[in-house]
Amino acid sequence: MKRFLALICAFASSMFLFSLEKTDLDIRRDILAYGLENEIVELIDALIKEDESGLQNELQALFDSTRSSAVKESLLKYYGEKNDPYPKEWALSIIADPWDHKKTTVLSIFSYIEKMKAQEAASSVRAILKSENTDYRDSAISLLGSIGTEEDADFLFDFLEDEFSVDEKTRLVIRQNVMTALGKLKAEKYRVRFEEVAGNEDENAVIRSTAAVALGEIGNPESIPILESLFLDKDPLLRSASVKALSGYSSEASTAIILEGFKDPYYKVRLDAIASAEKLKLNESVPYLLYRSKSDPVESVRYRSYEALGLIGDQEGYSWLAEQFANKKNAEGLRLKAASVLAEHHKTSFSPLLLKELISVLEDEKKIKYRYELLKLMIAKRTELDSSVCISLLTSKDPTTKSFGIDLFELYKFTEAKSEIEKIAADEKQGALHRRAKRIIESDKTTTASGE
């Protein structure tokens, strides 16, 4: 009988202790309720990347109660990324009278309204632009370009034509911002005016290039001749604008200019040619991209060519990138760039090669930083990994490598690796690794129990 009572007491004690164990969700609730500002902001940043947090009530309560501008701004970013209307009415009320609020908070509201495409904010934004206070002028112009209507386009054009009591540099910035906003609004009504500005050789080159890019956004084929003519200019800023603007069209003439941009002596024009080819998914650009990848004297152009090849490259492009990754004579940065592109666009076919490369450096301490970068890439891209790799990482003497092993176990829950996680969880000498492993084990127990 005593033995039976002892068993009952032991069971009750274990159940009491189990009830005290907190799940990840409980821990997150505690952070939102009692955490420091930086802890809360860090958690909100993590929640932005997740599909569903199960914390909607807690987040709403926090938004309503917090006096921390950093937390408020992080929550606005969260709600904007999730396209969540919860703070919308509050945001609209602040933007209607923003002058007594912290500038960073008001700018966060601008970003939220832009994400939500809240056209009902337009009248308040126009009022801000009409006021004598210029704190939000540039941001307000940009916001109208994102959420505005034809009425707002007319307002912006009138704003463009106004005579401001400002220095010439500020005047140029205002004109740039307004033309960019009108381009985003696809304001066909003002296309001819933009063509006049773009073609005016007496006009400032920055303004001409901004007008050209706006014409590309508007997308009327009648603007192509003026955009083509800009590519013949000696100023690389105008050639760059020409190539960028022509990405708004699908014609033989625009394609020819974009391909010619790959051979421009100024590297920024080449970068814009790559971006335009990528935007239009120009198969004709693959030979140009391969050449730039192999031979361009500017590293940023070579790497940008890698990215475009991953998106629009054919089998030849894939094979070439795979060769660059496999070639151990290449710099590790170049190999990692090729790997990143291939993992992004050809994950299924490339994963076995990436796994093989990782295995080859698991025990090579001379390649430890390269190993870290491979692991970061593989975890970020969710490429093929197996339990043997996870076990190798967990049994490594290097704490950082072991930490990556815990990351893998948390993601994939490899059954074969569970005993190694349990060893780390039982070893308090392993510090932060011990605490992480213990939390994972306890979380798994709680999840299993709740599912029974």
Describe this entry's structure for a reader.
With 452 residues, this protein is an all-alpha fold. Among the domains are: 33-47 and 59-190, Leucine-rich Repeat Variant (Alpha Horseshoe); 385-452. The chain has helices at 2-20, 24-34, 37-48, 56-65, 69-81, 88-95, 103-116, 122-130, 137-147, 150-161, 168-184, 191-199, 205-218, 224-230, 236-245, 252-261, 267-280, 286-295, 299-312, 315-326, 332-345, 347-361, 368-381, 387-394, 399-412, 418-426, 432-451. Helix 9 runs parallel beside helix 11 (168-184), helix 11 packs parallel to helix 13 and helix 26 (418-426) crosses helix 27 (432-451). The longest helix is centred in the last third of the chain and has 20 residues, at 432-451. The radius of gyration is 28 Å and the shape is flat. The two termini are 30 Å apart. Mean pLDDT is 90; it is low at 4-20.
Largest sheet: none
Poorly predicted segments: 4-20
H/E element order:
HHHHHHHHHHHHHHHHHHHHHHHHHHH
The value of Rg in angstroms is 28 Å
Class inferred from helices and paired strands:
mainly alpha
Fill in the keyword field for this structure:
ARM-like, Leucine-rich Repeat Variant, flat, ARM-type_fold, mainly alpha
